[in-house]
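Appendix B. Chain record.
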Amino acid sequence: MLRRFTCFLVVGSTLACLPLACGGSAFNSGASPSAGGAGAGTAGLAGASGSSAGTSGNGGVGGTGAGVGGLGGSGNASGAGATAGSSGGSAGANGGSAGTSGKGGAGGIGGIGGIGGIGGIAGSGNTSHAECKSSTDCMLHSDCCSCAAEPTTMLGATCNVACTKTPCSVLGVGASDVECVSGRCVLKLSCDARHLACTTPAPACAVGQVPIMNSDGTCYSGQCLNANQCDAVGSCDPCTAAGLACVTDAAAGGPDYHCVTTPQACKANATCACMGVCQGSYQCNAPDSTQLDCNCPTC
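Structure tokens predicted for this chain:
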């Protein structure tokens, strides 16, 4: 007696066969059933590779095996085969795009150069450069070459000339005949001829010198003296002729004039304050002016 078998293949397994009873299915009697069709499910496609430069995308997981076909129907009608299993999942999405390259850092800004140092301020023109304030700051310099009043701090020039009489002895002056006038050491000899009252002619003097007056200032003594060594002159003319500055002291009986040297420190700006020519009760009319005018508010 012949026996019929129904066979089916399960994915991932071996071929299986079941014996069928005569005149019916293995489970129900009736007409011959059609074989239980169980189509194998289509395997899922592998995921596509990620795009270059980015991180590769993971491949999609393949679809699971197809569903097992349904068992044959009962009795007279053949059971319809079960629908094949659905296809595997779609491929994985492509990998991400390549990362954007970082931009280089901006260059540092160069350091600012240091400012140069500020130059020193020039000496003030208001600093007095008088060589004396009183007669005690002065001394007599006497030798065969000259006779002059000088600051006690000054070293006199050396004279190598021999003589029987010094200029100071000729003039009749001694150590006590020095004084400080207009901030300069001078001899106690006047050269102001404004009160001349005699007919004695003035002596001929060398350039830079002026005639000396007698003790009461009414007549020429017959001697000459450097203009800057006189304690007074009659005007600014002798000062200009000798290349000296002229100081004007306002006084009750009329102005007094004095010829003065200009200190080296005041050469560039010989202001009244720098020259230090207004002493004692006198003060500069305009300290910053080169006009050497002194007044005495209390005189």
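Further analysis of this model is presented in Appendix C.
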